[in-house]
Input
Amino acid sequence: MARYTGPKHKISRREGINILEKDSASLKRRLTVPPGGLKKKMRRRSSEYGQQLREKQKAKATYGLLEKQFGNLVKTLGKKKGETGEMIISLLETRLDNIVYRLGFAKTRAHARQIVSHQHILVNGKKVSIPSYQVMVDDVVSISPKMQKNVQILPLISEKDRVILPYLKKEGASGKLIRMPKKDDVQVLFDLQLIIEYYSR
Output
């Protein structure tokens, strides 16, 4: 299945969440009206399965994952000890494309995926071109020297108002994962328990 590349407003309205990764007054006004103009209160109440499916779709849309990618990520956790919801967030947040986005080296996760795929990102000094690469604690993620001079990236590196989440440390054009992310570190826009139930069927 190909990754959705159409209008982000459309998918945000369908899922009822803002996946634009930036404030949008026009989208905020329209989030309660899905594509087609049918208001939520007029739609039939979803079944239990439908609700689980919707939450899974929200998570995929937020992080820009394909169906198989997200399914494999959740299913691998079945064999591990720990709180599944917490581990889902940890794995999603430690994807290389997400770390690049969270460090402020890209405007959106889609932009971060592009930068990683074009080999502009280093992990511990070595180029990594796989957006789904799992960053480990103490790994250093940096922008290649050539890309640091890019007119789009330069302002992002020097931005001082960017809020860096507590599990990361940023210094100039590089950043470090100092601990594994937790649910409380981020704003979770989907119901993790319903997602777990979906894959437990």
Summary: The chain has two domains: 8-91+188-199, 95-179.
